[in-house]
Amino acid sequence: MKNTYLVDTNILVRLLSKDDDQQFQTLIQLMLQGEIRYFIPSITLIETFWVLKSTYSLPKDQIVRGLFLLIESDEVELEEPVLMRNVLHQFNQKNVDLADAYIAEKAKQFPLPVLTWNHKDFKKLECEYYAPGDLV
Hints:
mainly alpha; 2 domains; 3-stranded parallel beta sheet; 7 helices
């Protein structure tokens, strides 16, 4: 039986950046042994993108490809699997912030409209949204 561990951002950063070969090899070895599953909270995926983009200056498309490969692994379980796949697809296809893509997908899931000043991104995300001034 596999042991499941909730994964911190630094684990995903090691897997996707390979910036520390020893740590990377340890994580790969654990996965290949087939005795471990990684449970990834949604916030960890979002933070991983932010770290890889801001600290490692990796291109968006490379990070998104790596995240898709990771989340499709048999050893990975997502907190919100359908929602996060939709978020990554929206983020990959549209020029919007990853957090905004997440918020839009959550709004559709509840369903609730989004309150934002950001008309530009939320219009692209095809969800119901309002600016505070729209409600006065």
